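task queued by scheduler; priority normal; single chain, no ligands, no partner chains; default sampling; output format set to structure tokens
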Amino acid sequence: MNNHFFFFLVLITGVFLSIKTRKLTVGAAFTGGVLAVLIYFGGGYTGLAMLAAFFVLASMVTSWKRGIKEHWKVAEANKGERNTLQVLANGGVAAGCGALCLIYPEKAGLFNLMLAASFASATGDTFSSELGTIYGKRFFNILTFTKDRRGENGVISFEGTLAGLIGSLLIAIVFYIAYGQHNAALVIVCGLAGNLADSILGASLERKHYLGNNVVNFLSTLFAAFLALLFAT
């Protein structure tokens, strides 16, 4: 228990602050706490650092120039306060990878790579949508490459794609610091692929209302983790 005192201190503080600052609903904060436990006990402090990096960075870019996003009617609902389903959509795959580390400790290296890839995808997608909306110049439907409306599902821009790449890179840096350059580039590639998969699902199934945004986000992080598994084995 003493070995994990610092983790639980950080966890309790994080849950409290996320509710206090209205970054997460009460239910989402406690759900995030459960996910954090799985990620920490499976991925250690590196997994926890990637979770923290995603949460802090996603909160920052979601709040960035919010007034402009509201004017264009593309801002996140509830002033960016995330609910339980959104937390599960972005962190559920990573928590699953943490659980797999506990069940199969001999393959922890592989599952930690998948965990990193899922966070790289989630971070990249958030950067693309939140910053691309602000800084994008020309917007295209990812399936048809025809001009499309800013903020619409499945719409991309060069600037947004670049922002997504930077988001994935930041998660890869955390992975690199912990594990060295081995597979760090793969984290970036899988993160970018998951981000693009999110846009493809958004332009097709989400626009036709076959899938909701939370399911699309979950599937894109799962796709990124699966790619990491595919390329690393």
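post-processing summary
- Helices lie at 5-20, 26-63, 66-71, 84-103, 108-135, 158-179, 184-206, 213-232.
- The radius of gyration is 17 Å.
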